[in-house]
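Something for you to look into today, if you have time. What I am after is a single protein written out in full by you. I want to see for myself how the chain folds. Could you add the entry underneath, on a fresh line?
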Amino acid sequence: MADEVICHEHSLTPFFRQLLAVSGVVMYMIGTGANIAYPGVLLQQLRQPDSAVQLTPDHESWVASILGLALISGIIVAPFSLEHLGRRITNQLSTLPALGGWALMITAKGPATILISRSLQGFAMGVQAAASPVSIAEYSSPKYRGAFLATIAFAFAAGMLIAHIFGTLLYWRSAALACGSFYALSLVLVSLTLETPSYLASKGLANECRRSFHWFRGYDQDSEKELEVLLQSQKKTGHTLITAKQSKLKTYAELIKKPEFYKPTLIMMFMFVLFQISGMTVIPSYTVPVMCDVTSGLIDDNIGMLMVDVVRFGTAILACIVVNRFNRRTVLFFGIIMTVISLLTTALLLYLRDFGYLPDEYKWTPVIPTLFYIFGKTLGILPIPWAIAGEIFPLAYRSLGSGISGMFLSIMFFVVVKTAPASFGTIGIKGTFCLYAFWVAVCGIFLYFILPETKGKTLYEIERQFKGMAEEVADPRENERMLELGKVEGG
C-alpha cells in the first residue's frame, strides 16, 4: 500500500505526508484512551441487577487495573520489536492484540473473558506506549514535532470522551465495537506510510533512508543538512556498536554509565511517575464516583462525567497549539503548579463541606477547582511526557530507553489504579487528592533540576546536549562540516 501512496508524493506536501503517518499512531492512541476510560461506563452498566455479566467489587478493581500489569509484557516486547522489526511493522502488529481484545469484550459472558480481553488490550498498549512517541518524533520535522507529539494528549482525551459518550448512549457490547474500530483504522493508515528515516539510518540502509526522508521532509536545504547529519552520525554510532558486540554484558555495563542514556532514562522515570500519580488514568476509570462525591450528588452522574471529558478534550486541543509555541519546561511546570493548587483547593472545599462550613447552596463548588485540575494536568502533565519521550533518547538507545522508562509507566498504572478504590474508601476523595498533590509536587521539584529544554532542536542536537556537547550544537558550522563530510564520502 505504501508504494501506491509514493506514486502520489508530488501531490502532497511534506507536512501532509508527516500528518498521514502521525494520524495512524493517533488513531491507535484514541483507542488507548478508550481502553482507559471504558471501565467507567462498563462497570456502571454491569452493576445493574439484570446485567448479562455479574462482577464482584474485587473483579471491578481488576477490570480497571489489569491494563497496568499487561502493559509490562507489552513494554518488555516493544524494544526488541522496535529494534529488529522497525517502527512501522511494530505499529501494525500492535493493533492485532488490541482488536482481539475488543472482539473478546464484545462476546464476553463472564469475568474471566473480560479480564483476558483487558489483558490483550493492555499488552497492545504496552507495545504502543514505547512505539508511539518514538514513531511520531522520527516521522516529524523539528518545526512540527512538538505539535505532532502533543496529538498523543489529544488522542488520549478524544478516546476517553468517545468511550464515555458511546458507553452512555449504547449498550456496553455495542460501545466496545465502536471503540475497537479505531484500531482497524490505525492499521490502515500505518500501512499507507513508509518506515521512519531514523530507523533505516540506524540499520545502515542509506538509500532507503534517503528515500524515506525525502518523502517525509522534502528536498529543501535544511532538510538536506539534517539528512546528511543523520547518516553520518549513524555511521559513527554503527561502528561503535559493532565493536561493542564482543561482550553484551560489558556493553550494557558501559551503556548505563553514558550520560546520553542514563540521564534521559532517569528523566522519563520521573515523567511517567508524574503522569500516573497525577490521576491521569485513575480519573477516567472512576469518573462517576469521583464526580458524584465532588458534586455532592447535585449534578447527574453522566453529566458530571461528560463535563470532565469535555474539559479534557478541549484542553487537549489547546495543548497541541501550546506545546508547539512554548517551551516544554514552561508548559510542564505551569501544568504541575495548576494541578497541585487545584487538587489542594478541591480537598480543602471538601473538608469544609464535610464539617458543615459550606451552605447547602454552595455544596457543588468543589467541582470548579476539580475542572481546573483536569485543565492543568491535561495541558501540561498529559502532553509533555509523551513529547519528551519521543525526543530525549539517542537513536542507538531509543528502543531500550523507551522500554525501561515505559516499565515505570506500567507499574505505576497498576499500582495507582488498583489502590484507588481502597484509597477512596479509607481517606476519601479529599485525602486521595492531597496525596496526589504531594507526589506531583515532589516529581515536579526533581524535574525542575534535571529536565533540559528540547523545543526546536533536532534529535541529533538533543543527543549531543546530553553528551555535554551543547556548545558544538549551537555552532552552525558543525552541521556544515557534517554535510561536507557526507558529500566527500558519498562521492
Observations:
- The domain at 8-199+249-466 is CATH 1.20.1250.20 (Growth Hormone; Chain: A;).
- DSSP finds 22 helices and no strands in the chain.
- The longest helix spans residues 398-450.
- The chain has one domain: 8-199+249-466.
